[in-house]
Amino acid sequence: MKNICLIASGIAMISFACNRDSVCTDDLRMITVEISGDTLDEYYTVRNSNQDTIRHGQNVSPADIGSILVVLTDFYRDQIKNTESEFIFVGLIDDSIRVWEPYIIGADECHIYHVNGPTQIQVQ
């Protein structure tokens, strides 16, 4: 009986190890940037290849957002799945562009991931 349990456990571990790349977690991943200095009135992210404009938190006043802003979330994963794509994070104050930062963001079968782009931006 002990050998059967050991064999069953071994098979289960091997099976999990072989399939772990296809098992997605339920957590929501996001790429964020910490903003310091002046407070942005508005911000959004643009995908360079097709000019998609992605807006986050449109029902929240920018003054209530704080210093951590969303560049992109897993909600956009299907559009870039199994690729990497260039995005521009844009921040405005009084309808004037004050932040224009490029990002490279990729996605696999489950989540987006940060390839390149700042994690902190000083707005002046």
Would you give an account of this structure?
- The chain is α+β, with helices and mostly antiparallel strands.
- It has one domain.
- The protein has helices at 2-19, 62-65, 77-80, and strands spanning 30-37, 42-47, 53-54, 68-73, 83-93, 96-107, 112-116, 120-123.
- The strands form two sheets. Strands 3-2-5-6-7 form a five-stranded antiparallel sheet.
- The radius of gyration is 20 Å and the shape is globular.
- The model is unreliable at 1-20 (pLDDT under 50).
Question: What structural category do the secondary elements indicate?
Answer: alpha+beta
Largest beta-sheet characterization = 5 strands, antiparallel
Biggest sheet strand order reads 3-2-5-6-7
What is the average of the pLDDT values?
83
Number of domains: 1
Helix content bin: 10-25%
pLDDT < 50 runs, ≥5 residues: 1-20
Strand content: 35-45%
In N-to-C order, the SSE pattern is HEEEHEHEEEE
Quantity of strands, as a count: 8
Euclidean distance between termini CA atoms = 71 Å
Radius of gyration: 20 Å
Figure out the total of helices.
Answer: 3
Choose one word for the global shape: globular
